[in-house]
């Protein structure tokens, strides 16, 4: 390992003082080629040099608008897709170097719950088959598979009448519970939750979020919680990271980010949260931004947010700002802080 | 499906038959493997619904009865045929020569026929007539069903299997593997299948007969499969060549179709979920992807079953495949064409048999398409429910 990258890793490790990181992500990149008729026309830089760490037994919320690359980050960390560059450490080990048995062992420890519960369950398998499959695949023998699966189902709020049914017989919330039971089957340490409640009714959302919190406390799980819903992220996360066009613009403890946002983009995002009290809503100062996010195929030079930023300076269009620690454990990538 | 909901169905006699059959079957399996019933209840219920839907498709039922009849004849035909497929009845009665349907022939006591060939003396009605050797057309059509059926089953057992496997690999792997497989497939598709089959069935027999000579048990097994007499072992090489030729030409279509379906099926989130769990590739292909694309494949298989029967008859008609005196529908038409239209029955009845068998498979295929497609199937279910 070169001196440079080891220093970078050291800084990611120390990102949040007083925490032991389970997952460390260093300068992660994922470019999707855009093919023309014959040649590759360019690359969509879905994730472009992202570094962060997820502390053990804590939840890191990852927010950003559609197309900011947050889901891609989740998939990269689980190696469902291969990154273009960078490295990912899980419990101190570089998972990008894993293959075969090592990768399989990693899959036992890290699981995912997908956004759309209507798509993430195989319609031809019964609930039992779906939840038991992880054990079958990893050759884990349990004395009574039926009982084992049933225990998992009880845990997520389902019961024995659901055991041998097909996914189409369930509601969205119930399906998401099945997906959570499947993710829990292997007793993982880490779970990526990719917008697990965005397809559900608000009342069901709350139930699922509480369920997730409950199992996190019970099993000491570490979560990467991906969402575009700031309220949900605030409720769930200990730390949060804000992504814009494939970059992290701000990262820190959730409370601090919410109460004292440093980056102009975060400020704009937070002031877009509707406030139920009209009195308060009228008096608060809102920061609005104009325009659409630029194409990730051809992102702006310098700071990616500069064409829409109300605090635009000349430097912003020329040089990319690094993550700067604005307070302890709270980082923001903006030239305003210098 | 809960039990209250099921009560809404107005059950037809056939549905009750389905219930009776499946309930007893599940009960029997549950006896052998305790707990099976509980575990598979939903699956059995789904299967029942599929069959109920099929029961409501008249063309499907017609197809089903035609095909069941064809299969029945193929299985028991050789045992119920009044004469052997190669019995030249002209030796018994000169009237048997090109006898029209309904001709009555007489086998005399002490004649060559009864002494050497062991045919009981008496009067026989040739219900479908006879050919230029006086061979009974009815018996030959019964035997011919066996020939078509065996060829079709053997071709459909191997050809699509190759095609589906290659399609699965090609679609899921992508990249250079996909390119290689698809270009080879293109070569086969670019060449007309029938011409290729003709070429192969013309070239292969020499080599095939050598192999059959080397393995007598294989030869005798094939012989009994086709219900042929031991002295006609020489005719086997041609029949087997047709089967091999059809294996060679019958897979590319499946590779194409399956690849296309896999390309869309592999993008499903549940496939990604399976990968996240660590499910190995072959298991993803056969447990997660294949069951979800099986419906359309099943439709193609059924339609192709009729297709193989037709092509096999066509090859025999061209003089490839079955050689005299083997009973084969295509061959009977070919041999009888010489006497057309005077002896029209030699062309008409085997042609009709082929038509009905192929029609049966096509009708089943079409209604299976409706039943297995979730969209049209729900419509059929609603129609069933609305009847109350």
* Largest β-sheet summary of chain B: 2 strands, antiparallel
Number of helices of chain B: 17
Low-confidence stretches of chain B: 1-7
Biggest interface, CB < 8 A = A-B, 31 and 25 residues
Work out the radius of gyration of chain B.
25 Å
Structural class label of chain B: mainly alpha
The CATH architecture of the largest domain in chain B can be named as: Orthogonal Bundle
Alpha-carbon distance between the two ends of chain A: 31 Å
CATH superfamily of the largest domain in chain B: MetI-like
- For the biggest β-sheet of chain A, the strand order reads 6-7-8-3-9-10-12-11
Helix fraction of chain A, binned, reads 25-40%
Summarize the structure.
The complex is a heterodimer of chains A (338) and B (388). Chain A has 338 residues and is an alpha/beta fold.
Structural account:
The complex is a heterodimer of chains A (338) and B (388). With 338 residues, chain A is α/β, with parallel strands linked by helices. Chain A is 32% helix and 23% strand. Chain A is built from eleven helices and twelve strands. In chain A, helix 4 runs parallel beside helix 6 and helix 6 packs parallel to helix 7. The radius of gyration of chain A is 21 Å and the shape is globular. With 388 residues, chain B is mainly α. Chain B has two domains: 88-134, no CATH class; 143-372, MetI-like fold (Orthogonal Bundle), CATH 1.10.3720.10. A two-stranded antiparallel sheet of chain B has the order 1-2. In chain B, helix 2 runs antiparallel to helix 3, helix 6 packs antiparallel against helix 7 and helix 6 (137-173) crosses helix 12. The longest helix of chain B is centred in the middle third of the chain and has 37 residues, at 137-173.
């Amino acid at each position: 390992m070169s001196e440079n990258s080891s220093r970078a890793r050291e800084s990611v490790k120390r990102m949040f003082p007083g925490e032991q990181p389970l997952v460390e992500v260093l300068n992660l990149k994922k470019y999707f080629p855009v093919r023309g008729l014959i040649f590759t026309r360019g690359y969509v830089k879905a994730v472009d040099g992202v570094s962060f760490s997820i502390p053990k037994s804590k939840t890191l919320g990852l927010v950003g608008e559609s197309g900011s690359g947050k889901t891609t980050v989740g998939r990269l960390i689980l190696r469902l897709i291969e990154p273009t560059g960078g490295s990912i450490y899980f419990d101190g080990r570089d998972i990008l170097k894993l293959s075969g048995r090592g990768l399989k062992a990693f899959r036992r420890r890290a699981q995912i719950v997908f956004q759309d519960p209507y798509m993430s369950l195989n319609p031809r398998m019964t609930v039992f088959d779906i939840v038991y499959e992880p054990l079958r695949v990893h050759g884990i023998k349990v004395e009574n598979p039926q009982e084992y699966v049933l225990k998992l189902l009880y845990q997520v709020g389902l019961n024995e009448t659901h055991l041998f049914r097909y996914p189409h017989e369930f509601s969205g919330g119930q399906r998401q519970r099945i997906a959570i039971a499947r993710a829990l089957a292997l007793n993982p340490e880490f779970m990526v939750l990719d917008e697990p409640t965005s397809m559900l009714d608000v009342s069901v959302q709350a139930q699922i979020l509480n369920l997730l919190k409950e199992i996190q406390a019970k099993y000491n799980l570490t979560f990467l919680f991906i969402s575009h819903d700031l309220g949900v992220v605030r409720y769930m996360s200990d730390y949060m990271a804000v992504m814009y066009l494939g970059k992290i613009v701000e990262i820190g403890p959730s409370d601090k980010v919410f109460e004292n946002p440093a980056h102009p983009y975060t400020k704009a995002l937070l002031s877009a949260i509707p406030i139920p009290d009209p009195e308060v809503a009228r008096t608060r100062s809102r920061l609005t931004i104009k325009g659409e996010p630029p194409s990730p195929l051809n992102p702006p030079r310098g700071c990616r947010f500069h064409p829409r930023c109300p605090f635009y300076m000349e430097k912003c269009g020329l040089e990319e700002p690094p993550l700067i620690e604005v307070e302890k454990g709270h980082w923001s990538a903006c030239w305003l802080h210098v | 499906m809960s039990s209250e909901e099921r009560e809404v169905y107005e059950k037809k006699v056939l549905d009750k038959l389905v219930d009776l059959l499946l309930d007893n079957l599940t009960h029997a399996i549950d006896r052998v493997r305790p707990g099976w019933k509980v575990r598979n209840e939903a699956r059995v219920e789904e299967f029942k619904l599929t069959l109920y839907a099929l029961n409501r498709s008249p063309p499907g039922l017609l197809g089903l009865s035609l095909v069941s009849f064809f299969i029945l004849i193929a299985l028991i035909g050789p045992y119920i045929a009044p004469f052997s497929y190669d019995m030249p009845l002209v030796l018994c009665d000169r009237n048997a020569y090109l006898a029209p349907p309904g001709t009555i022939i007489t086998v005399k006591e002490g004649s060559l026929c009864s002494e050497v060939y062991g045919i009981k003396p008496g009067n026989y009605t040739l219900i479908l007539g006879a050919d230029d050797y006086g061979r009974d057309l009815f018996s030959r059509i019964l035997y011919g069903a066996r020939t078509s059926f065996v060829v079709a089953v053997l071709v459909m057992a191997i050809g699509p299997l190759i095609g589906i496997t290659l399609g699965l690999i090609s679609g899921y792997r992508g990249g250079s593997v996909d390119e290689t497989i698809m270009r080879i497939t293109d070569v086969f598709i670019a060449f007309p299948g029938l011409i290729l089959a003709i070429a192969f069935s013309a070239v292969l027999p020499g080599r095939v007969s050598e192999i059959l000579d080397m393995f007598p048990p294989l030869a005798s097994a094939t012989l009994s499969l086709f219900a042929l007499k031991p002295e006609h072992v020489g005719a086997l090489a041609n029949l087997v060549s047709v089967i091999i030729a059809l294996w060679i030409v019958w897979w590319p279509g499946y590779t194409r179709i399956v690849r296309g379906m896999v390309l869309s099926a592999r993008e499903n989130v549940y496939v990604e979920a399976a990968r996240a769990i660590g499910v190995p590739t072959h298991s993803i292909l056969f447990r997660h992807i294949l069951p979800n694309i099986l419906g359309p494949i099943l439709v193609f298989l059924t339609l192709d079953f009729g297709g193989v029967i037709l092509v096999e008859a066509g090859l025999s008609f061209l003089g490839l495949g079955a050689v005299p005196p083997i009973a084969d529908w295509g061959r009977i038409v070919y041999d009888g064409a010489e006497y057309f239209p005077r002896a029209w029955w030699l062309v008409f009845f085997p042609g009709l048999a082929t038509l009905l068998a192929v029609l049966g498979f096509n009708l089943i295929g079409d209604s299976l398409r409706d039943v297995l497609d979730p969209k049209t199937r729900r419509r059929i279910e609603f129609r069933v429910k609305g009847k109350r």
